[in-house]
Amino acid sequence: MTTIDFTKGHGTHNDFVLVPDLDGALDLTAEQVRFLCDRRGGIGGDGAIRVVRAGKVADVSADVDPDLWFMDYRNADGSVAEMCGNGTRVFADYLRTHGLVTDETFDIATRGGLKRITTVPGGYAVDLGPWRLAREPEAQERGMDSVVQVVGIADPVPALSLDLGNPHTVVALPPELALGRIDLTTAPQVDPHPEQGTNVELVRPVGPGHIEMRVHERGVGETQSCGTGAAAAALATWWWAGRPDDQLDWVVDVPGGRLGVHISDDKVALSGPAVLVADGTVTLPA
Ligand SMILES: N[C@@H](CCC[C@H](N)C(=O)O)C(=O)O
């Protein structure tokens, strides 16, 4: 039996079990991740994050500085995800709180590439890097590339797919539908179905540069927040508005709080809080 240290943290109530693996000696299995994220039988979280040096991870490109800290992100169902926007801030806060990083601006490594973190009042800003429309050229021309069937909405709703390192499908809800009344207990069905799965964001405008969003995360279910999802939702809304040059800053309200998104050229940045809640030890299933 293996007993490990853990830290529980969250970013706008998107919650994670952080597992320090400072020597790169731990190989978390999918079953162990499911146990850690189990809200009744384990610690509980939307995902697990192993804190490990890039040089100790087999699937990190050889040109990445091996001393950088790598965010090894897994969804609650044990699957591997390329990126987690809220996770980057919580990961950054773990590194700074434990003295593993002392700079105010620093890079971390993820499966979705290097991400630059900056400490800001109330939390962290993360340069998520380049984004792209996942399905060209239909999306370019029509601002939509798929339809999504949401439980309780009679007709499929048009949607736009974006790639932020991980996959997102953003759905603009018809104005008459209250976001809070949508049933997200089952995954919205996206047609055509993306082979690698997708996170699905339901958005409604609140005002200029301000949207509200609920999300059904790939590998998890409905969560209180999704950072890359908030960036995708802001980008899609901006795209639908005709990409206005004077509307590059967005506020995204999620059930768990508020996130900021800044669009610049072909890149996007995310800002918001990070909270470390508890430390402990846990014995993993064999
Ligand atoms: N909550 C995250 C995204 C986590 C990964 C996602 N479920 C996926 O499979 O892509 C965020 O804050 O971005």
From TrEMBL:
<keyword id="KW-0413">Isomerase</keyword>
<feature type="site" description="Could be important to modulate the pK values of the two catalytic cysteine residues">
    <location>
        <position position="168"/>
    </location>
</feature>
<dbReference type="GO" id="GO:0008837">
    <property type="term" value="F:diaminopimelate epimerase activity"/>
</dbReference>
<comment type="pathway">
    <text>Amino-acid biosynthesis; L-lysine biosynthesis via DAP pathway; DL-2,6-diaminopimelate from LL-2,6-diaminopimelate: step 1/1.</text>
</comment>
<comment type="similarity">
    <text>Belongs to the diaminopimelate epimerase family.</text>
</comment>
<dbReference type="InterPro" id="IPR001653">
    <property type="entry name" value="DAP_epimerase_DapF"/>
</dbReference>
<protein>
    <recommendedName>
        <fullName>Diaminopimelate epimerase</fullName>
        <ecNumber>5.1.1.7</ecNumber>
    </recommendedName>
</protein>
<dbReference type="GO" id="GO:0005829">
    <property type="term" value="C:cytosol"/>
</dbReference>
<feature type="binding site">
    <location>
        <position position="75"/>
    </location>
    <ligand>
        <name>substrate</name>
    </ligand>
</feature>
<feature type="active site">
    <location>
        <position position="84"/>
    </location>
</feature>
<keyword id="KW-0963">Cytoplasm</keyword>
<feature type="binding site">
    <location>
        <position position="14"/>
    </location>
    <ligand>
        <name>substrate</name>
    </ligand>
</feature>
<comment type="subunit">
    <text>Homodimer.</text>
</comment>
<feature type="binding site">
    <location>
        <begin position="227"/>
        <end position="228"/>
    </location>
    <ligand>
        <name>substrate</name>
    </ligand>
</feature>
<feature type="active site" description="Proton donor">
    <location>
        <position position="84"/>
    </location>
</feature>
<feature type="active site" description="Proton acceptor">
    <location>
        <position position="226"/>
    </location>
</feature>
<feature type="binding site">
    <location>
        <position position="166"/>
    </location>
    <ligand>
        <name>substrate</name>
    </ligand>
</feature>
<dbReference type="InterPro" id="IPR018510">
    <property type="entry name" value="DAP_epimerase_AS"/>
</dbReference>
<feature type="binding site">
    <location>
        <begin position="217"/>
        <end position="218"/>
    </location>
    <ligand>
        <name>substrate</name>
    </ligand>
</feature>
<comment type="function">
    <text>Catalyzes the stereoinversion of LL-2,6-diaminopimelate (L,L-DAP) to meso-diaminopimelate (meso-DAP), a precursor of L-lysine and an essential component of the bacterial peptidoglycan.</text>
</comment>
<dbReference type="GO" id="GO:0009089">
    <property type="term" value="P:lysine biosynthetic process via diaminopimelate"/>
</dbReference>
<feature type="site" description="Could be important to modulate the pK values of the two catalytic cysteine residues">
    <location>
        <position position="217"/>
    </location>
</feature>
<keyword id="KW-0457">Lysine biosynthesis</keyword>
<feature type="binding site">
    <location>
        <position position="199"/>
    </location>
    <ligand>
        <name>substrate</name>
    </ligand>
</feature>
<dbReference type="Pfam" id="PF01678">
    <property type="entry name" value="DAP_epimerase"/>
</dbReference>
<feature type="binding site">
    <location>
        <begin position="85"/>
        <end position="86"/>
    </location>
    <ligand>
        <name>substrate</name>
    </ligand>
</feature>
<keyword id="KW-0028">Amino-acid biosynthesis</keyword>
